[in-house]
Amino acid sequence: MGVFVDAVRKLDDGVDGQVLGFDEYEEDDDHSIVVHFNDDMPTGHLVEATPEKAGSVLVLADSHFLTFRDITFRGGTGQVVHASAPTENLTFERVSVQQCSRSGIILLGTDQATHINARFIDCVIDRGWGTYMNVPPVLHAKTLETGGNGLEFRDSVDGGLVQRVRIVDFGHTALRCFATGTGRGVRNITIEECDISAPKDSYCRAFAFSGVAGHLSGLVFRRNRVHDQHQNSKIGGEDGQYYANLFYGFYAGTPRGKKVNSGGVSGAFFHADPSPSSFVSRNNLIINNTFFDIEWNALWAKGDYKPYGNLLKNNLFVAVGQGNDGFALFVSRYFMDNNRVLNNGVWKESAADAVFSVEDKGYTAEAFDRTFENASGNIQAGPHFVDETLGNPDLHLQQSSPYARAGLPITEIPK
What we know:
Layout: E1 3-5, E2 8-11, E3 20-23, E4 33-35, E5 45-49, E6 58-69, E7 71-75, E8 81-93, E9 96-98, E10 105-108, E11 115-121, E12 124-126, E13 149-154, E14 156-163, E15 166-168, E16 173-179, E17 185-192, E18 195-197, E19 205-211, E20 216-217, E21 220-222, E22 225-229, E23 233-235, E24 237-238, E25 241-243, E26 246-250, E27 269-270, E28 281-282, E29 285-287, E30 290-294, E31 299-301, E32 311-313, E33 316-320, E34 329-331, H1 333-338, E35 340-342, E36 345-347, E37 356-358, E38 361-363, H2 365-371, E39 375-376, E40 379-380, E41 385-387, E42 394-397
């Protein structure tokens, strides 16, 4: 294994294990331990491992009150940064994670140990292996789905902040919260003002929030920009808030030879994870989001899983499904009987277009509201954006827009 810090070799070849390991760091007072290079050195330090035997570059276990600042972690054959519970008050600030053979950062908990209050602020997590496979082909010769996750909270995490983080080009999921029921649950994670994207030839979903009842709750996903994706994201768990986000540029195709969604095309997100069937999607708020330039369905919720008690309100769906017979919503009758769709704006190409689909039957917004008891106030009209140029739009509403003052009061989200 070759290990380098600021391009200077620090370990000899043949040394197995991880590059950096921090164990049992803790302070009793409120002051955090800060781990970084000497203050008299220039910023932008690099910790790098060649991938032959490196494992993870940074490993944390039973680590508390640590801050990592202005460091780049790169390389290895596993997750670049791997944290095993218990941890408390870990902070990554202005950290870059690059050239990931699998995942970027994972916080892994158990039924005995939990991560508490992890924070990621102004970071960049970039797969960074190239334009097609994004990873060394030898690692992924047999499967196309083990391409890794950018940032993952798994099984036992209580409290977290992901703020102004850019996640780029991952081979499976950029941001994942996953609660299988084997731990204490993933709860109270706030993701805000982040930028999540992937190249057109990448198989990547922006986020996947999936969990069994009682184990995934209190997620807040707000004011994020999600764009240039091929695969649907997943909204699961309970009592989540998804508001003021921008989703645009979701493209049809077969990235890495793998079809996505039905017919090889995709949408912005679907509502519940179909596998396993014990995963739930309940009482989530999806409010004040904008969906633009989606080649297939913006929201997909069909099959055997049963989303319940969710609210879609004041969302704007524009240029959705054009040329692919897609819809703002592509859902089951069960979805309509058990979730509410209120006061959303929808526009495809004309007022006569079917913009909602229930059990494979299309509806205009007016017909949709007449047919389903849990639908009301939905509007089908052109949005009057400042600039609707695909690829580089300005999605602010002009004063002439029928949606400019049409939103219902937001009483469901505490101020």
